[in-house]
Amino acid sequence: MKITLVAGARPNFIKIAPLIRAIEQEQQAGSPIDYRLVHTGQHYDDRLSKIFFEHLNIPDPHVNLGAGSGTQAEQTARIMVAFEKDLREHPCDMVVVVGDVNSTMACTIVAKKMMVPVAHVEGGIRSFDMTMPEEINRIVTDSIADFFFTTSRVAGENLRKAGIGEERIFFVGNTMIDTLLTSLPRTQQPELWRKHNLKVGQYLVLTLHRPSNVDEPERFASIMDTIDTSAGMEVIFPIHPRTQKNFDGLSRKPSHIKPCEPLSYLEFIYLLQHARGIITDSGGVQEETTVLGIPCVTMRSSTERPETVTWGTNEIVGDQLDALGHAMKSMQQGTWKKGSIPELWDGKAAGRIIRQIIKLLR
After folding, report:
1. Which element (helix H / strand E) includes 170?
2. b/e per residue 243-267 (b: at least 16 CB within 10 A)
3. Which residue, of 132, 254, 261, 354, has the fewest CB within 10 Å?
4. Cβ neighbours of residue 211 closer than 8 Å, sequence gap 6 or more
5. What does the pLDDT look like over 16-48, one tens digit per residue?
6. Positive or negative CA dihedral for 310, 314, 315, 320?
7. Closest Cα to residue 307, out of 343, 346, 347, 265?
8. Contact 342/307 with Cβ under 8 angstroms?
9. What is residue 152's three-state secondary structure?
10. Which CATH superfamily is domain 187-333 in?
11. What ranges do the domains of the chain cover?
């Protein structure tokens, strides 16, 4: 039995890594399962991609489809054309997609049209915000996939409401947390730790990448000003080159916010686990901070990961800068809510997934 694992952007690598380890464990136990790792090349920056493969102990992909960048339609189309050719040349019994990037949707459509079953790891999550490209990817993927491995009971309920039968939904936990827990003993202190004389619990981390927060200069400047005046301590900001241009164009230069180049996974987790708190618009960071027990304020009006709010350490402030300032004060004062770890986020999700896939293929 052979499965094709599809990875496209950075978060996919983190979710794929434990699946590969689980497959290798099943192979050692005598299972006939095998895999082919397809990297669509959606995230094409070698400096960022290659180091992820190295740090996560992911073998080199069997192929890189080289999709590259472009508009949503251009990128999706290139992925579909290239993946169709690859799947024809390398047939499999099941295609496994993860997350909610363009590669997830594109490869699901291709596989289904070629009559290949599709399993969606992280199926059923919803933000109910149709302005997010990721939400469209989730809905399209889940509308045609065959099997769904969910990170929460809420995700399973979303699928049931869409008419998907119980026999196709498997609540397994979160493979991103599998990777987090196995990586904690190996985290690496980034060079910027000494450069900025950082101390445990005495700095904040900022990650922003959504267009609504970084692309409109006036909005971006207001966010930077609020964070800078409310911080009371250093704010480390791993920044995308596109956002760096807007940061460099600020009329008032922040005194507390320290931009830096994007970090490797092991460096970034080191930074997270020792921070006083996190300000983000990333879904994955909401999950990681919940497990690490670190206060997290999310600059979005909704989250597809509600368990990080109901169980975890995350709070949503939307576009309300006053709420952001109050949240940062709570972080500083140590009055943030105490979270807990969501159900089945125990580092064993990938094993559950691969064992279930073996059952399905048999």
Report:
1. strand 169-171
2. beebbeeeeeebebbbebebbbbbb
3. 261
4. none
5. 999 999 999 999 999 999 999 999 987 655 555
6. negative
7. 343
8. yes
9. coil
10. Glycogen Phosphorylase B; (3.40.50.2000)
11. 2-174+345-361, 187-333
pTM of the model: 0.95
Two tokens, residue 194: 């000494």
CA nearest 235: which of 243, 246, 226?
226
Both tokens of 54, joined, read 């190295």
Give 127-160 pLDDT, tens digit per residue: 999 999 999 999 999 999 999 999 999 999 999 9
Alpha-carbon Rg for the chain in angstroms? 20
Cα(8)–Cα(84) distance, rounded to whole angstroms?
15
| Neighbouring residues of 29: CB distance < 8 A, sequence distance ≥ 6 | none
Domain 2-174+345-361, classified CATH 3.40.50.10260, yes or no: no
Residue 48, both tokens: 């960022």
Check for a shared fold between 2-174+345-361 and 187-333.
Answer: yes
Q: Which helix (H) or strand (E) holds 319?
A: none
Question: Tokens standing for 272?
Answer: 């997270």
CA distances from 267 to 55, 58, 190, 276 (A): 10, 17, 5, 16
